[in-house]
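[Q] Does anyone have a clean structure-token version of this?
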Amino acid sequence: MSLINQMLHDLEQRRTADVISSPLRGISASASAIQPVGVSINYVALAAMVAVVFTGGVIG
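[A] Here you go.
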């Protein structure tokens, strides 16, 4: 148990050192951060709109 406690203690020290040294630690540059939260593509609605526009173009 002493080894596990020591590892946890070291991890806690690293986390506090990272927070102090890097104020932008929580910012991510992943692709999911680029797209706003709550925005998703409804493919069924998109396909329906394309079909309506295409059908209108053929008829017109």
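[Q] Thanks! Anything notable?
[A] Residues 2-21 form the longest helix (20 residues).
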